[in-house]
Amino acid sequence: MKRLNWLILILHISVVSLFADEGMYPLPMIDGLRLQEKGLHLTNETVYNPGNTSLINAVVRVNGCTGSFVSDQGLIITNHHCAFRAANLASDAEHDYIRDGFLADSRAREIPARGYTVRITESYRDVSAEVLDGLDAITAPLERQKALEKRIKTLTARAEEAHPGKRAEIAEMFKGEQYVLFIYTFLKDIRLVYIPPRAIGEFGGDIDNYEWPRHTGDFSFLRAYVAPNGQPAEYAPENVPYRPAVHLRVNPEGVNENDFVFILGYPGRSYRNRGSAFLNFEEKAHLPQRLAWYQWMIATMEKISADDRGVALKHLSRIKSLANLEKRYRGRLQGMNRLDLTARRRGEETAIREKWPETAPLFKALDSLYAARAQRQPLAFWMERLRSDVHALYWAGRVIGAARERAKPDLERESAYMERNWKRTRQAALRRTENFYMPTDKAMLAEILRRLYQLPDVKNYSTLRELEQDIRRSGSMENFVDHLYAHSRIYQRDVLDKMLESDSSMVAASQDAFIRLRWQLEPVIRALREQNRLDGGALSRLQPLYNQARKKWLKHNFIPDANGTLRLTYGHIRGSHPADAVYLAPMTALQGILEKYTGQAPFNAPEALLTAIDKHNSGVFYNPAIQSVPVCILYDCDTIGGNSGSPVMDANGRLIGVNFDRAFEGTINDYAYSTRYSRSIAVDIRYVLWILRYVAGADTLLKEMGIH
Amino acid sequence: MKRLNWLILILHISVVSLFADEGMYPLPMIDGLRLQEKGLHLTNETVYNPGNTSLINAVVRVNGCTGSFVSDQGLIITNHHCAFRAANLASDAEHDYIRDGFLADSRAREIPARGYTVRITESYRDVSAEVLDGLDAITAPLERQKALEKRIKTLTARAEEAHPGKRAEIAEMFKGEQYVLFIYTFLKDIRLVYIPPRAIGEFGGDIDNYEWPRHTGDFSFLRAYVAPNGQPAEYAPENVPYRPAVHLRVNPEGVNENDFVFILGYPGRSYRNRGSAFLNFEEKAHLPQRLAWYQWMIATMEKISADDRGVALKHLSRIKSLANLEKRYRGRLQGMNRLDLTARRRGEETAIREKWPETAPLFKALDSLYAARAQRQPLAFWMERLRSDVHALYWAGRVIGAARERAKPDLERESAYMERNWKRTRQAALRRTENFYMPTDKAMLAEILRRLYQLPDVKNYSTLRELEQDIRRSGSMENFVDHLYAHSRIYQRDVLDKMLESDSSMVAASQDAFIRLRWQLEPVIRALREQNRLDGGALSRLQPLYNQARKKWLKHNFIPDANGTLRLTYGHIRGSHPADAVYLAPMTALQGILEKYTGQAPFNAPEALLTAIDKHNSGVFYNPAIQSVPVCILYDCDTIGGNSGSPVMDANGRLIGVNFDRAFEGTINDYAYSTRYSRSIAVDIRYVLWILRYVAGADTLLKEMGIH
């Protein structure tokens, strides 16, 4: 620890000497932020005006991403990676829109983005009282948790009845304290307007992922359509462009270093308000185990893929997404370590306990809850890996779950099997058959079982003891695994498709080896799940007490953790000192593309881009400060996953960038904001417009956005 | 090419707008450099004063490194990696000086550095006339080359006769134009005084190799002893410290950004003055092939090492040195590409040819020489790999070479077998047996043969055709290779030791499979070697003509390529913009060690260092500009391999750092100096002194250097 004093001192200095722009603020908090003092030239009402229109009406959710309207004709800007699937599905043997990009040269040529929806926030209200009413009377943690879940489902269903055609969702702002009901409209006819070639939209690929300086053109354009009567409708040729209440103006002059910027978007999930017991659990148990396992999976799949291009192709996207996770977890762990987060939070708690000794039982309860969890963690982890990383067992779980849950009334089902989610759950399961490669699945299963059986607590479960006997009887782990796959067809798409329709008796009678294995594991899985709900119930009582004690100590309120609801974060265009003697400027330039260019993916570039850089590094999109057209920008706003595609706006609320990533050190944002390390990355609007003009020749789109 | 216009423009601007500090100048050129205008506060005579004492008398060669005297008691400062072998040989089961470092607490405790010599330059004179006299009359290139080699050997031998106990060497300053005879004294009793623990001296290890920012304490202290009568002598307890004519004063206050610095040292070999034909050959044929082969060898050895720690240990140092080469070659190739070197030199040559059409035959001759060389290159390359990367064939080559050459009069032998070099040649061969691992040697041999036999020109050599038959008859490459190793014992140290003493008839009669294979390959090797000498002879005529034409065009003289002789280079402490949006400051800080620290090699650090950083980041070694004690510095002097250990001096000629590496982009220095990319790295003298005081407790050493 001692050796960290120094670092902490440094960090402390930088925290107090610079603006502390922490915060993914729910919009109702905007009046407390004094944004005008920080640099905003707009009134708060221009940004957020409940019951009326404001900038937030321009910001929407596009599947898992954020997007924003940039014209009164339903034109939406979001990330390249958010439109990737639409372009992929639209491609065929003759049209490779991923490789070549796509520009609709007229409205009629815009391509339906299959499976895409755009979610617009209609209204929201605090429903904490209704959610929590009478819950305090239930002291048994498990019962309490079940009651809470049921209450949320019921209120959601009731709201959807009251708003036909809309979707209701209740978001937990503070565990056990604050709940907000959101009413959303879903637009269902979304079309692809423009996507750049992959070599622009993914320039730098996995190598540059989470890296700054960046030169990625990670943007695309979609358009939302509605029925001629203005109502949401599935795709139909006669549909008309949706007319949003508000759209963002584009600022072709962009911003400069130190300029004020802010972001509206839908950050996913953060853990800023948890206690040191949780942080310690994450740092010591959860993150290292997950990281090591991701590394093992990647190495194993690379080994299996090494000598066969066809096999490698089957693993490409899984390795890619694991590599992304691996890097993110590595970054988080590095960040926790560098900021010494756990020890600092523990120090705060010690001070609280010393000042108010009556809080001691609270901290003791949290400590023992997480100590117990850490004890259970290895078994829970490997059981979770079995269920999710072994495709055959994952499918078996879905088949059994469907048969069991879908026999219940909708409201009583587990979320994945409720009518509103079932279609998506099913499609996800079927999609996994596409790149199934049996030797990989076998290797995962064998390795997980091997690691599982190194744990002493497997002995506590009779069903795991029996399974161990089975393995032993097979002579070797390999034999056992081979035998399973020889007696299953669950990995065949048509077989699986039929199985997902089975009822309980059919599933119970199934001779498929993985259905039977999954049955065998069910008691352990159920026991662990109950235990989790028990923890959830206990936490829904402890966390509010913890928050109250901490607020009293810090003498100010704090911001609810991100939970997928609309948030505002502000900051400045700002470079970064990620390491001793290293300074990274906050704006990259066209010539940086040439410096990285190798002619090979991920550093390839279309000829049209190279030519344009040679010819058109000038004009309205040129920034004298960097003697080039800016490509990407860096800023100290507070973002996490889910902010992809979020609009970055200047002091006047004009669009100047599209957020798409964080710098590696910024992955710590999930646990804490750091003035030194928290940096997010957007594609600069000048690069977007420059590409449209000089590479894509999309003058119509420019005109639609008011750029001449 | 087009896409590079931009980059070139940028580079051009930076070249003309900043100081162009190119140059590894031979000291006689010092008067033309106007160093006082650049920032030097000394007279040229203080630096270089032929026939008298000056700073250069303090600079010596320590085996392959440079070192400098820093006290009147023969104390020498050089790099950690230059003293590594001495500390390694001095270690035993009870003393691990590599891990723990070593400090002699009195003169008597200094440890003999076995195999170390310190070379002092006694005098030098231009012998071009004697070397070249009458050579023009010989027009046949091969004869000319042989005559040149013979002439150099003869003059060297004559000079050594005239200076008993000294060593003479003739350095080629400009091929076919200028030759200088150096007379050296060798001190032979060298002792280890201080070496820091490996975790300081190699902090960052291979990962940080060629990287900036750097935090490596790459320094050590040795002491030179002589006989009581002042003459060079082998180790003897009664020997006394050598009293150098001049030693460097140490400046404990160091330097700051933009300060003038200069370096004296022995850079190895550069290729600045070659034509575009040569550069093209390097870029297109030589470098890529070598790079790909290094990568293959590393990957293969890593695969072989993967599951066995013992096997891995045998490959560690070979992989390490290959990884170093791989990175250097990768850097060179990237640099040639970024600077577009070949095309720029070709452009210059085109202009020369247009202005003076009479030079056309010269360029044509160079082009066709390198075209022919490129054609022969693959065969030559794989034959060279056979001889050097397959240990068994390398040893066989040494055995055959020794038998043949050592039968000749000394002056007529190939250099490696002359009496002055034979001991070293022999030891190097025997040392290779230590980490011999047969499966690796087999894998190398099989792969090289496979690649060799893909070349069409193997058919031109009857002996290679026969060998192909042998392989075919074996049924498979693996059988062929296995059979060879089953019928050889050359890899056993004692067998090899005896073989190296064999005479020609014994070697001719040997039944060892590798001796016989090497015999079989001999005609091809000899043919290729003759071809090389033929090229050398042709170049010794063409290169002077090329230099003359280029000088006439550039209207100024240029600097001879580095050739292991003493050179001066000057520049400034200067940060680096190696890539778009990246700025690296020229000075690293103690806290950077903490940032990189992981507790695991190569980012481990002794507890004493961590404690000292916590306690002593202050005092005389503290630099307010970086709010810390500087660890390493970066500057734009012009260095290459061989400059390791060179003193970096301030405007007053005081020692402020010890050079030990270049930044990755600086590996281009072998072919060209670049204002943007050429940066070298030293350990800052303040870190050296701070370590001595607060980590090593070596106050006696500090006092000896005049630091109180």
Main beta sheet of chain A, described? 11 strands, antiparallel
Number of domains of chain A: 2
CATH architecture of the largest domain in chain A: Beta Barrel
**What distance separates the N and C termini of chain A?**
59 Å
Estimated structural class of chain A: alpha+beta
Gross geometry of chain A: globular
Oligomer: homodimer
| CATH topology call of the largest domain in chain A | Thrombin, subunit H
Which segments of chain A are poorly predicted (pLDDT under 50) over 5 or more consecutive residues?
1-20
Counted beta strands of chain A: 21
- Largest interface, per-chain counts? A-B, 34 and 34 residues
Mean pLDDT of chain A: 92
Helix content of chain A: 40-55%
How big a fraction of the residues of chain A is strand? 5-15%
Number of helices of chain A: 25
The CATH top-level class label of the largest domain in chain A: Mainly Beta
What is the gyration radius of chain A calculated from CA atoms?
A: 26 Å
Give a written overview of the molecule:
2 copies of one chain form a homodimer. Chain A is of the alpha+beta class and 708 residues long. Chain A folds into 2 domains: 1-117 and 188-269 and 559-660 and 670-708, Thrombin, subunit H, CATH 2.40.10; 276-552, no CATH class. In chain A, 47% of the residues lie in helices and 15% in strands. In chain A, the strands form 3 sheets. In chain A, strands 2, 3, 4, 5, 6, 7, 8, 9, 10, 11 and 12 form an 11-stranded antiparallel sheet that branches. The longest helix of chain A has 42 residues, at 513-554. Chain A is globular.
